[in-house]
Input
Amino acid sequence: MSAELLFRDDLVKRLRDVVRAAVLTGAGASQESGVRTFRDAQVGLWAQFRPEDLATPEAFARNPKRVWDWYAERRRLLQDVEPNPAHWALAEMERRIPHFTLITQNIDGLHQRAGSVHVVELHGNLHRVRCSVCGRYAERWDETEETPPRCVACGGMLRPDVVWFGEFLPRLEWERARSAAETCQVFFSIGTSGVVEPAASLPFIAKRQGALIVEINLEATPLTPSADYSLRGKAGEILPALVRAVWGGEG
Ligand code: OAD
Output
């Protein structure tokens, strides 16, 4: 980014005084790290499948090995991936705003790697698995010849601890996200197409209670008409510039 982005003075002033903020991120926040968004076509071996055909309980029941292997491949791809300036800027915002909740639809764990602490993982985390029978969680497991590996407690098949299409969100995470939307003064929607419920309703919950809505996205979304500020562009460029404009220092 050559020229420093110029932000409306009223936006900068309002953000300087913010005490309670909530952020919703989607795949666009990780895109500049090289992580494919849901809109990007699948590549290589997986080009023949759509996420909707792999990330479902039915797909896992039908072919658990294929679903496990798809997530194992995405986990492997993440080994070469680093947080990008959008992730770092959001970690800086958390340090600057007293009550800050980062709600993410992403399962890549990049926000935590960039130093974000209060992260609500609405759709789970690719680096965690759980038993499909007894529900036991694990962040480490033994890879065996048999895939998916088996639960050490009950022998059930392990599955990625991510929310599949048609599944409910983890209740506690959803309650935390909704509470943040209901109490924040500013709600940021960043890098999400805003079409998957119930995450997509969070900015509207915030707007209804009077929060300022700031959208940062490459393209217009269903939220855009309701946003007080819609900053069109790359999150990895806009967020660091916004942090510098509001709080100075390194965004
Ligand atoms: P999408 O791929 O639907 O949307 C990504 C959005 O980010 C698009 O609107 C892009 O224009 C925008 N974008 C891409 N690169 C960007 C960048 N560098 N800076 C800013 N914006 C950028 O991904 P999500 O909205 O995250 O759910 O999808 C939401 C959910 O749909 C996912 O969590 C997944 C999927 O169904 C589950 O897996 C349950």
